[in-house]
Amino acid sequence: MENGSSSEDQALAARMPEKLLFQGLTPEQCRKVAEIVTVVRCERGHVVVPERDYGDSLYVLDQGAVEVRVASPEGDRLVCELTAPKQGEVCFSGDFFGEMCLLDLEPRCASVIALEDCVLWEINRDRLYWLFGDDKDLQLRILLSVARVLSRRLNLMDQAAAQRQDV
Description:
By secondary structure, the chain is an alpha+beta fold. The protein has a single domain, classed as Jelly Rolls (Sandwich), CATH 2.60.120.10. The chain is 37% helix and 26% strand. The chain is built from four helices and nine strands, in the order E-H-H-E-E-E-E-E-E-E-E-H-H. It has helices at residues 6-15, 27-36, 125-134, 136-166; strands at residues 2-3, 37-42, 47-49, 57-63, 65-70, 77-83, 96-97, 111-114, 118-124. It has a five-stranded antiparallel β-sheet with strand order 1-2-9-4-7. Helix 1 crosses helix 2 (27-36) and helix 3 packs across helix 4 (136-166). The longest helix has 31 residues, at 136-166. The termini are far apart.
């Protein structure tokens, strides 16, 4: 894990608009968020988020791919895979995970495992809430981004459930 220097924070802030979570933020808001990001590098197979863990951070996928798995009586079940978009692209299904820690204090409902070497931007909930206290527009924009992605994911799950019932 590494916290950036000022020049690294500036480079990170410049790339934030590529990420769905940060679209619509001003350059100043991106700079503020970059200051609280911890860059995490993990190897293939690393469990980034263990199911049932009480998490306090969300993660933005900068490079690599992860899979989301849920334990079931029959064994782990693959829920989805997330892949970091190429530079200049936007991932509309969301290029972040662990966002539920912003909304509730429940344990994680799934495990997230690196499918390949990854670079993640970790954002601690308490530090983000501290920023929200200073900037309500930042709070609104980030929480709306989270809500949009959650809505898309819920719609995809509903469609998948409907297709299973049709079989």
